Amino acid sequence: MKKTNIRPVVFWTPMILLVAGLVISLAAGDSFFSVLNKVNTALLSNFGWLYSLTTLIVLLVCFAVMLSPFGKIKVGGKDAEPKMKAKDIFAIVLCSIVGIGMVTWGTAEIMAHYTAPLSTLGLEPYSDGAADFAMETVLLHWTFPAYGLYALPSVFFAFIFYNMKRPFSVREFLYPVFGKKMEGKISGVVDIVCVFTLLCGMVGTIGTAVLSLLGGITHLSGGGIGKTPLAIAVLVAVIVVTFVVSSVTGVMKGIRILSNMNLYFFAFLAVFTLICGPTAFIFNYGVEGAGNMIAHFFSSMLRTNAVSGDDWSYWWSIFYWAAYMTWAPISAMFIGKVCYGQTFRRILSLTLVWPSIFTAVWMSIFSGTSMHFERAGYGVADAYAKGYEYTVYAVFEHLPFPLLITVVFLCVACISVVTASDSAADSLAGLVTAKEQRGQNEGKKTWVKVIVGLVIGVSTFIIVVYSDISGVKMISNIGAFPALWIELLTVAGIVRIMKDPQKYDENKKDYDEQGRY
């Protein structure tokens, strides 16, 4: 029998912790989620400022890397040939990072801020000022700050894995700062914590997708299929089976095909809505929103509402930064791995710049349409009040061919969550494997991915059934806390490498006598 080379402690410990939490939640009922809420509140209230500050610093460092000589260094050395085309990388980044979020919240978040704007700004719900605030906030949450949290760790890990030729492990994010001090037992602890963080992130993302898909199915069935445990179980099973099957077929096949397919679906929905929706309003509202976001960028990024005590930032901006951080380390390992042969400047353009621009256009189209229809008296805010997952379908009702675009939307939502879970499962399989290779056929551990799928599926079902969207948000926030420190160490590590890349790069022949690339 072939040896599996699985690191049992790294693999089983976080699985057992998550399962134990589920058993306790079932036994304790509401009291468990009450404790979960207290932990979540404590983390956000005490460290909210650090989440915000870290997100801003990471973004600034991303641009520093792009503009510095470090940006022209190639992943794997000057002779390295790309594993994937630039378009494939862009599609994977877009679909596997915030794809399900921008699909789900594109029409809904704007209604949240329009109907309940930040009270400390003195804005009245449903006012013109609230509408302006809503658009700039949506663009802030879904563009450059979001992608920056993934882009910088991706560049960092690509250099560590391919140029420094270090092992495929989360602990390697710490190596440029701490060196060999991180080797040994403590390195296993880091990997365990990050696997647990990833599991929490996957539960949160799949839970969000299930609620969104269920809203669409309820809409299509005219209320015949409701939010029942059976319906939730079926949707969770479909998503889990699909991403496991896709993952075991190989990253060069499954995720690349799904991401490119989804990119065309994205484009179709965006162009259709732009043409058939309130086109002029979309352009005007989107451009104004972008201007407001730029004008208020730094104050909005660092807003914590410390004086007023308003928890708006905890449940919106800071929540988003935390949710993105939850996925960042593992997603960065996957993205960094497929960026072999690309320069770091080009990686940042494919993981930060172009995805942010695409998402800004997407949000302007769908949030603008949602706002226009609400102010026209179509009851979009009423749909949001029933549940965020119903908002998009209330918008589609007032566009041509509502049934067609609803079906396409459901396909986009499903493929997005499958793509995200697919990439996460691939990275997790490599992380729990004793030796992850740098070739094309890396870390294929089918049974690992199957077990991950089962645990994630059961966890998602319990969270969604017993706590709805609030529980999904809490599990994501709690999982983000360890990832916060990895982001900070990523900043410290990449700044150190940028000062003297030749010192860390194993491809010494790529540098001249003065250490220039």
Features:
mainly alpha
Short synopsis of the structure:
With 517 residues, the chain is mainly α. The protein is 74% helix and 0% strand. The protein has helices at 8-28, 30-67, 86-96, 99-105, 109-115, 128-142, 144-163, 175-178, 185-220, 229-248, 254-276, 279-295, 297-301, 312-315, 317-338, 344-375, 380-386, 391-396, 402-431, 446-499, 501-504.
Written account of the structure:
With 517 residues, this protein is an all-alpha fold. The protein is 74% helix and 0% strand. The chain is built from 21 helices and no strands. The chain has helices spanning 8-28, 30-67, 86-96, 99-105, 109-115, 128-142, 144-163, 175-178, 185-220, 229-248, 254-276, 279-295, 297-301, 312-315, 317-338, 344-375, 380-386, 391-396, 402-431, 446-499, 501-504. It is globular, with a radius of gyration of 22 Å.
Largest sheet: none
Radius of gyration: 22 Å
What class do helices, strands and sheet pairing give?
A: mainly alpha
Which shape, going by the Cα principal axes?
globular
Share in helix = over 70%
How many angstroms separate the termini? 47 Å
Average pLDDT confidence is: 87
Q: Give the total of beta strands.
A: 0
How many helices does DSSP assign? 21
Strand percentage: under 5%
Element-level helix/strand string: HHHHHHHHHHHHHHHHHHHHH
Poorly predicted segments: 439-443
